[in-house]
């Protein structure tokens, strides 16, 4: 069996990084001309982000969440467009110290579904563009929980 392409390896590194939200890993796999965009636009998501902007965004998320493990359901690779599409599920893991009293553990549990479109540079080792299609319904709930966690963090500081 042939070994995975550099393109697919890079896509898998990107997906695996959500477990730790490591900005160092992102620094290594994002091209200097990188662009990140959330979709659908009807949700009025943040961004688009350049490399520095995405790293700052992820750093801010990491202050609230210890990770967002993403599990790929399917990778679809396109050699002609130097692109990988990832259909996946995700699970937000909030930092224990930021969970608000009065909300059960199940209330903090949040799983969603998403699709990433990942474009690579000519080497297949750097990401130049990502479009992330969010789970519209679950993202609304995620933003509510993030706001509660931020309020609790402010109280604790």
From TrEMBL:
Domain of life, source organism: Eukaryota
Gene3D superfamilies: 3.10.450.50
InterPro entries linked: NTF2-like_dom_sf
Protein name: SnoaL-like domain-containing protein
Phylogenetic placement of the source organism: Eukaryota, Fungi, Dikarya, Ascomycota, Pezizomycotina
């Amino acid at each position: 069996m042939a070994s995975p392409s550099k393109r697919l390896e890079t896509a898998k590194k990107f997906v695996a990084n959500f477990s730790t939200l490591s900005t160092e890993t992102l620094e290594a796999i994002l091209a200097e001309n990188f662009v990140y965009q959330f979709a659908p636009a009807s949700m009025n998501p943040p961004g688009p982000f350049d490399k520095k902007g995405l790293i700052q965004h992820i750093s801010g998320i990491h202050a609230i969440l210890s990770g967002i493990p993403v599990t790929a359901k399917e990778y679809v690779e396109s050699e002609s467009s130097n692109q990988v599409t990832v259909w996946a599920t995700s699970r937000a893991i909030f930092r224990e110290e930021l969970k608000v009293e009065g909300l059960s553990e199940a209330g903090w549990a949040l799983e969603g579904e998403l699709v990433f479109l990942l474009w690579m540079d000519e080497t297949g080792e750097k990401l130049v563009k990502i479009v992330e299609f969010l789970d519209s319904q679950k993202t609304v709930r995620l933003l509510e929980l993030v706001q509660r966690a931020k309020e609790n963090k402010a109280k604790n500081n």
